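In response to reviewer comment 3 from the previous cycle, which asked for concrete evidence that the modeling workflow produces usable outputs, we include below a single protein chain processed end to end. The sequence was submitted unchanged, and the resulting C-alpha cells are shown without manual editing.
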Amino acid sequence: MTTTTKTVLVTGATGTIGRHLVGELLARGHRVRALTRSPDKAELPTEVELVAGDLAAPPPAGLFDGVDSVFLFPAPGVTGFLQAGVPHLVLLSSLAAALEHERDRGSASQVHHAAIEDAVRGTAASWTILRPGTFATNLLTWAPPIRFTGGVRGPFPTSAQAPIHEADIAAVAAVALTEPGHAGRHYPLTGPESLTRVEQLGAIGAAIGRELHFTESTPEEFRAEMRSYGVGDDIVSMLLRYWSDTVETPDAVRPAVAQLTGKPARTLAEWARDHAADFA
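The workflow returned the following C-alpha cells.
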C-alpha cells in the first residue's frame, strides 16, 4: 500500500460502489473530493470535499485543481467530461466491452461501455479500465418477490455467473487510483465462484434464514414480464443471451481482485449477509 497521500476525485460518490470507494480512500489516508448533483443530500463523511456538478455537463471551474487521480462513473454523456483532462483516470466499465463472447457484440452494455472506453483511451491522460462482470447488486431486483412470495421466477435457472461484491470493485479502484503500476491496464473483475441462479437464490435464503424457491419461466414469459415493467427489449435480449450462454459454459472466475488487493474476493454468501436487510 502506498504511503503517499493523494487527492482523488470520485464521481458517482453517492452510488453503491462510490460510497465504498470513498470509505476505502479515507481509510488509506487519502483526500477525497466528490462530484455530486446535490451536495446537501450526499450524506458522505465530513472529511469529503463536496462539489456540485453533473457528469453530463461541463466540469465546474477548479474541479481538477490539485487532483492526482479521478474515478469515472460511466454515466450517459460522460465523454464531454473527459475533455478537461486529468493526471490519471480509473474508469468503471464492463466485461462486455472486452468482447470475449459473441453474445456481447452489439449488446446494450457493450455498446455503451466501449464508447466510453474509446473516449478514455483517446485522451492524453494516464488511464486504468476496470471491467466487472455480473454485479451481485443486480440480485436486489429479487428483493420484492422474495419478501412477498418467498421466491423468484425466471428463465435459465441452471445458468451460472460469478457475481462480484461492490466493495471488491471499490477496493480494486482504490488501488488503481493511488498506487503505481496500473496505467494502461484493463482489469476483468468477478466474484470468487461461479454459481447457478438457483445457488445464488440459496445464498440469499441462507443469509435471511428462509428456504426460497426458484420457479422456472420461459424466455418469452420473462420478456413479456419485463416489457410490462418498461424494461427495453435490448436489455432483455442481452440478459437472455447471457443466461442462455452460461448454462453450458459458466462464467469464468477472474483472479484480479485478490491479486490487486491482497485479499480474497468476497463470496456471494458474504454479499448476501451484507444485504440481508434488503431481502428480509
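The first strand starts at residue 7 and ends at 11. We consider this sufficient to address the reviewer's concern, and the full set will be provided in the supplementary archive.
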